[in-house]
Amino acid sequence: MKKLIIIASVFYLFLILSSTSSALSLPIQINGKIVNAHNTPIGSVEITAFSGGKKIAKTTSTDSGFYEMRIDNLPALPASIKLSFYKASYKKQSISIDKFYNEGNLYSAFKNTSLVRTAGPAFWIALAILIIMYVLITFEIFHRTLAATIGAVLALFLSYTLGALNPNYFIISFDEAMKAIDLNVIFLLMGMMIIVGIMKKTGVFQWLTYISYKMSKGKVFRLAAILMIVTAITSAFLDNVTTMLLLTPVSIEIALVLKINPFSLLIPEVMASNAGGTATLIGDPPNILIGSYAHLTFNQFLINLTPVIVIITIATILIMKLVYGKEYKKAAIGNVDELLAKLKREYKITDMKLLKKSLWVLGFVVLLFITHGALHMEPSIAALLGATILLVISGADVVEILEKEVEWPTLIFFMMLFIVVGAAEQTGIIQLLADMVKQLAGTSRVAAIILIIWVSAFASAIIDNIPFTATMLPVVAYLAETIPGANGAILWWALSLGACLGGNGTLIGASANVVTAGLAEKAGYPLRFIEFFKVGMPVMIVSIIIATVWLLIGG
After folding, report:
1. Looking at the structure, do residues 103 and 189 belong to the same domain, yes or no?
2. 401 and 496, same structural domain?
3. CB contact at 8 A, 385 and 190
């Protein structure tokens, strides 16, 4: 009997100890969010937990900045847990958690934190790579596609060599590089290139050459002005890249007929496309970002930006008259009626059946472009859908279309450029510009307008305007809330005008520029960076001056 009592007592004691041990070893779960100075989430941050100087857990933040850490098998609830946060190009930061909430089956804690950028070795290497790429492109040491590829490969190679030896030299990971590539842009371009490639087989672009010349009545400057106006309006309701994909073949044909430099038509059209795309919510990608973030509607963009864009377009037409006036006078016009009759005979629609199919598909794609916001559908889906439908119903040779009509060098250039710009974003180069605007603007409405529009313009001429605009969104939102008299949408209009019009500054400042250059090069007319810069930068500066005055007067 005594033995049974002893055994029962030992078993009871064991149960008590087990229960106590279980209570002490309840898991601990720590959640939180990591942001930067602009309250933008930071992904891929390494979070390490320490207790009593020993590492007890490790995790990584998601792209949305959230992290979740679960700590099991601790003998007792610690008095505090130290969390260490680290990511290259940010200052290492540590915080302590000394308060936990018992939720029955675990202890929990929630801790947000903000990391501060630091201009370490990775920052300077990324900046050097960006400068090297621009030097190679500007002085045409290498083709722009190869120059961008060199920059992208350098950033990745150094990250996994020097960065492996010392984390401060880590620029961008392969995963971050892949996420930096905007596939929406790539697939949009590819889809529209396929559609345009099939439409070329119908003779419609040659026919449009005849119609354009007929409208101008042999006056080349009038023809150029008409093409610019058509380009600006089309870009506002379609998008500037698609517009240039459609109009570039027509313009080259017109130039060949008139025996003038194709760039005397193409460059003015590109300038007009970037201006026209600024006028609406869907005309240029930065506007889509701004509209979504600031909850601005299509009509708000149209009403507030169209008047100033009309003025800028007129000014651009006059500048083009000064720049290309002599070239227009060189046109081999001769007898206008005779040339018109010749064009009418030779430039006919050759496949009306295919043209009708193409126009139905193109109309459907444009409809999807206009409604993509309501459908929450990326424009690239519409372009790829249209391309696929047209390939099926046209009976075109898929391999031939992909080989001859898709501008692969242009697409690869964009992909490599996105990686280089992604490296600049990861290391804080773009955020540095945004911080500068925030600090210099202070509480001055005038200073904020001037800084936002001018910094955005020059930044967009140098780097891609999409990541720059994304970085500036929380900055502009903060300034709009804190600066007296800026609580309307005027700062958003400054960002839109700067980011979109800045694309005219350089050959790689806007997607439409690069696409046009690629198509022209394929036709045997390579466009030099300097040649574009000499025309584009003055147009950009004049446009930004007009836009600045418009905003300051009360636009």
Report:
1. no
2. yes
3. no
- Co-location of 271 and 385 in the same domain: yes
Task: Output 494 or 425, whichever has higher pLDDT.
Answer: 494
Tokens of 138: 């500007």
Q: What is the pLDDT of residues 324-373, one digit of tens each?
A: 999 998 886 767 788 788 878 888 899 999 999 999 999 999 888 878 77
CATH number, domain containing residue 48: 2.60.40.10
Task: Give me the torsion for CA of 467, 472, 474, 478, rounded to 10°.
Answer: 180
**11 lies in some domain:** no
Separation between Cα atoms, residue 434 and residue 455, nearest integer Å: 9
The single-letter code of the amino acid at 372 is: H
Tokens read off for 548: 């600045």
Helix (H, G, I), strand (E, B) or coil at 285: helix
My answer on whether 99 and 202 are in the same domain is: no
**pLDDT recorded at residue 16:** 47
**Which domain-ending residue is among 88, 114, 140?**
114
The 3-state DSSP class for residue 84 equals: strand
Q: Return the ∠ at Cα 44 (arms to 38 and 47), rounded to 5°.
A: 95
- 187-237 per-position pLDDT tens digit: 988 998 999 899 989 988 888 878 887 887 778 999 999 999 989 998 888
* Close Cβ partners of 438 (under 8 Å, ≥ 6 residues apart): 475, 478, 479
pLDDT per position as a tens digit, 377-403: 888 899 999 999 999 999 999 999 999
Nearest-CA neighbor of 196 among 252, 257, 274, 140? 252
For residues 77 and 203, membership in a common domain is answered with no
3-state secondary structure 425-462: HHHCHHHHHHHHHHHHHCCCHHHHHHHHHHHHHHHHHH
Burial of 104 (0-12, 13-18, 19+ CB in 10 A): exposed
Please tell me the predicted confidence (pLDDT) of residue 4.
52
Lookup: tokens for 117: 């950028």
Q: Which two tokens stand for residue 378?
A: 């990326």
**What's the whole-number average pLDDT of the chain?**
88
Q: Any idea which residue has 């990608």 for tokens?
A: 285
Helices (H), 56-120: none
Distance between CA atoms of 3 and 364, rounded to whole angstroms?
89
Residues 249 and 389 in one domain: yes
Q: What is the pLDDT of residue 3?
A: 58
Distance CA 482, CA 491 (A): 12
pTM reported for the whole predicted model: 0.83
- Write out the two tokens for 161: 């060599």
Domain that residue 330 falls in: 183-429+443-553
pLDDT band for position 6 (cuts 50, 70, 90): low
Q: What is the 3-state secondary structure (H, E, C) of 321-334?
A: HHHHHHHHHCCCCC
The encoded tokens of residue 496 equal 């839109």
Number of independent structural domains in the chain? 2
CA angle 420, 510, 37 (to 5 degrees): 55
Closest to 276 (Cα-Cα) out of 265, 286, 266, 284: 284
Which pLDDT score is estimated for 25?
Answer: 57
477 and 400 co-located in one domain: yes
Angle at 268 (CA atoms; ends 264, 273), nearest 5 degrees: 145
